Amino acid sequence: MGARSIILAALSLAAARGFQAPRGASTRTLLRAATVEAAPAATGAERLAAERYVVQNRFKVKKGREAAFEKRWADRESRLGNLDGFRFFCMLRRVDDADAADDVNYVSATVWETKANFDAWKKGDAFKEAHGGGTVAGVAGMLVATLQNTKGKPKVAAWEGLLPLGLPGAPPADGEGWRRVAADGEATLPSDVFVAMNRFPVAEGSEDEFERRFADRSSTLADFAGFKGFLLLRRDDKVDDGATHSTFSVWDSRASFQAWLDSEKKPDEQPRKNLLAGRPTPSYYEGILALESAQGV
Known about the structure:
Layout: H1 3-15, H2 27-38, E1 52-59, H3 66-74, E2 86-94, E3 106-112, H4 115-123, H5 125-130, H6 136-149, E4 155-166, E5 193-200, H7 207-216, E6 227-235, E7 245-251, H8 254-263, H9 269-273, E8 281-292
Antiparallel strand pairs: 1-3, 1-4, 2-3, 2-8, 4-6, 5-7, 5-8, 6-7
Helix pairs in contact: 1-2
């Protein structure tokens, strides 16, 4: 679906809810405004509806094995981008290790429209192809590489994606479901995108209020050059790292993210802290092997 079609669809849905487009508004402003207006409002104690499903695998890659780890991912066969409900993928390479409270330095992140889409992929042939091809030799090779490159097995974190905001993506022009990226195993791959996450330990019983305050905020994200997509994430499995919620914003570069961050005023930061059981933890990543759907994040 093209950008014009997406805007018209969003405006139609928003119009049904009373939204009036301002005269002379830019395409970017119309898309942001229509998306926000079309999103379900959080009222009272209502829980925000999940509009995406996000699965992350957290890796502890051994020092000196980063390039080899990335090559394993670059060389894999995958039809991910051609599957129903796929929205976005990238391998996140952490860039703030000096301040990190853990040694998780790589995170694979896949955004789906629904949990059912993710479950269908996990049970299908595409999952086997991406994990050793389903053969004994392929699986054995994957396990050996895991032992060589990482400290233990990856840990999964599943999230419901709330309040999506984004622009259309650019899938591979050749129709491939996976990007072909040359990797020699000696040098790490160049960055495709920049991803910022801010992980929140929301106090028990305060989850709905925390989400409502996010839904009520006015956002300037889509007005900034380089913005690609945003989700508020709500944990959908066991919380093993204290983070019940997290922001997930995608940019074309760190400079674009920093330009927005430097301009942002946060008058509601203090009230939101009253809902937390601890301090929020920001983490920043270079995204490699990024794969987009036509709809974007």
